[in-house]
Amino acid sequence: MPDNIRRARDEMFWQTFADRYAVEPGPINLENGYFGRMSRTVVEEYQRNIELINRSNSVHVRQRFEQGESLAIAAQLAELIGVTADSVAFTRNASDALQSLIRNYNRLQPGDQVLICDLEYDTVKGAMRWLARHRGAEVIEIDHAYPASFDSLLATYRDTFARYPKLKLMALTHVTHRTGLVMPVKAIVAAAKEHGIDVILDGAHALGQIEFNLDDLGVAFAGYNLHKWIGAPLTLGFLYIAPDRLADIDPDMGEMHFPITDIRARTPYSTPNIPALLTLPLVFEEYRAMGGSAAKGARLNYLRNRWVSAVRDLPGIEVMTPDDPRLYCGITAMRFTRHADQQAMAERLLKDYNLFTVTRSGAASGPCIRITPGLTSTAAQMDRLSNALNELR
Predict the structure, then answer these.
(1) How much is the mean pLDDT over the chain?
(2) Could you tell me the sign of the dihedral formed by the alpha carbons of 14, 20, 23, 25, in that order?
(3) What is d(CA 344, CA 320) in angstroms, rounded to the nearest whole number?
(4) Taking a C-beta distance cutoff of 8 angstroms, is the pair 124, 132 a contact?
(5) What pTM was estimated for this model as a whole?
(6) What is the DSSP secondary-structure string of 266-304?
(7) Cα-Cα-Cα-Cα dihedral of 29, 30, 34, 37, to 10°?
(8) How far is CA 286 from CA 41, 114, 184, 202, in A?
(9) Which ranges carry the Aminotransferase class V domain (predicted)?
(10) What tens digit of pLDDT does each residue of 230-278 get?
(11) Could you list the residue range(s) of the whole structural domain that residue 250 is in?
(12) How many CB atoms lie within 10 A of CB 280?
């Protein structure tokens, strides 16, 4: 058994990490997909950087941050994800990154088609519809069959590519925010390339809990968060553009503060959260020390499997996310089949069992309750969840 998988089950080991995070008394948080916690040391570093920038103001920012620190931090980010520094630019979050990539994609012609599916983030859907409207393109929307399998997901895209020969661009979500389904990105991207279709990848929930290599995935355009599974302060994300594809994304609304050959021109020029950015070197250091996505992902998957295996076969419970290890991560959704109102059941989980979850709708498969353990979650809390689900079903 690999060390990461064996260690994922070691409650005493993970308690040493959980102790590094301050947790407010109250409900057990099983909605860790919204954003992640900073460790105590990261919070302290962030506060120091807030005070530093408040004291030094533009003197530090103009002389040090803009001239060197920001570039060095971007280089550290690039090293963390295994790409070159000229392929990443900071944004406030994945949504900002994806909107920039979509609205500035310049290869669409009138009569072309763009593709979205039911599992895409609503902001991404809206951006793709906006792009199509302003470029004279047609939006193709598909629903994925449920329950999903690796083969069914790939087949749906292959069939769609063959049916719509004018497709030029598609959105693809690595980890779907509604159910936690992990898309077979590499296979889908390869199939898209066969038909000359570009892919803009939504990696908001992937970075930090799934191991991947962007070159191996074959992705040219992607947007990510740093405040979900990496442990950074809020307001931090980034976009990725493969260096040989930079010209296919225009400077954002004619942005001219940077040369046209600089990826930073593909984002709005504004004053960023400088103290948060200055905190990233420590965030990256702690992320590596914890074992990165290999260790985090193994732990989250263990916690997920603990409750899923206990309720998967219970009448009245439907786990929406498959058990194929290629298609799941720590985020998983379920629903009560004997109760129509999933929001009411989420409120019961909170009121009767002190378990905080979130409902999600919009998928063709129907509304669900999304359950997302975090690094402070324990096996005992997963058992409490499975017992609650059994009683409420």
Answers:
(1) 96
(2) positive
(3) 18
(4) no
(5) 0.96
(6) GS------HHHHHHHHHHHHHHHHHTHHHHHHHHHHHHH
(7) 50
(8) 9, 40, 29, 25
(9) 69-355
(10) 999 999 999 999 999 999 999 999 999 999 999 999 999 999 999 999 9
(11) 47-286
(12) 24
